[in-house]
Amino acid sequence: MTKQKVSQEEAQLSKIAEDKSKGSFKEKRALCIASLDTNVEKLDFKGKSYLTVAKRHNHLLKFFPESKIDEQIIYQDDKKVIAKTTLYIGDTPYSVGHAEEIRDANFINKTSALENAATSALGRCLATFGLHGTEFASADELVNAVINQGASTKNSIKDSIKKQTTETKLTALYSDWKKENDLIEKSFESQQQIIKTNGGQNNANKQQQQW
Which is the most buried residue in 52, 73, 167, 203, by most CB within 10 A? Predict the structure, then answer.
């Protein structure tokens, strides 16, 4: 991003901060959404762009530091977890997101289904507010979908490798496989940072008590 663009955005934010009129929130939200495309690094997967929940949430806080996230676990048992996240700007609710995670869907969910559900619910809540990439799904939700393919994916890639008859096709297959695994690795890193920052399940319980 150029210094000129940064200066223009800073000037706009300064003007909005001084503007106490009714339309200031709409202007700030529009600027927040518009700058997401140029200010936040995306993950490219099969020609489509995705953003992690952590990056989108950090972007929101730059424009709305007064925002609050209400996380609720609306259902959980030994099989699944359903989470709901509501985004508040001040005391006003602006968007809601829901997510469901099956505990035995993959090895991550066996120990972290609650955290994954909370993260996905926040991702969809931010997307409803307008902060998403080219797809409504977040990068984290995409990774969950890839992981949930489980053993069948492992078997299919082995079968696909054996079916390749030219070096060009084999290289293309490897490139696609590497993109998927790079995306998963980045999501692991993102989720690890979220857990370190928010305190995982303990943080979710604290937020429920606060609300």
Answer: 52
In whole angstroms, give the CA distance from residue 124 to residue 164.
38
User: By the 8 A CB rule, do 86 and 93 touch?
Assistant: yes
Domain spans, the chain:
32-210
Concatenated DSSP letters for 56-91? HHHHHHHH-TTEEEEEEEEEE-SSEEEEEEEEEETT
Quote the DSSP letter at residue 122.
H
For residues 8 and 39, the answer to whether their CB atoms sit within 8 Å is: no
Rounded Cα distance, 156 and 210, in Å: 47
pTM for the predicted model, two decimal places:
0.59
**Backbone torsions φ then ψ of 85, nearest 5 degrees:** -125, 130
> What is the CA angle 93-98-104, rounded to 5?
150
Q: What does each of the 211 residues of the chain score in pLDDT, given as a tens digit?
A: 555 655 565 556 555 544 444 458 888 999 999 998 888 877 766 666 677 888 889 999 999 999 999 999 999 999 999 999 999 999 999 999 999 999 988 777 888 888 888 888 998 899 999 997 555 455 555 666 565 555 445 556 677 777 778 877 777 777 777 666 666 666 666 766 777 676 654 454 444 444 4
2: Cα within 13 Å, side-chain hemisphere: 3
Buried b / exposed e over 62-73, threshold 16 CB at 10 Å, is: ebbeeeebbbbb
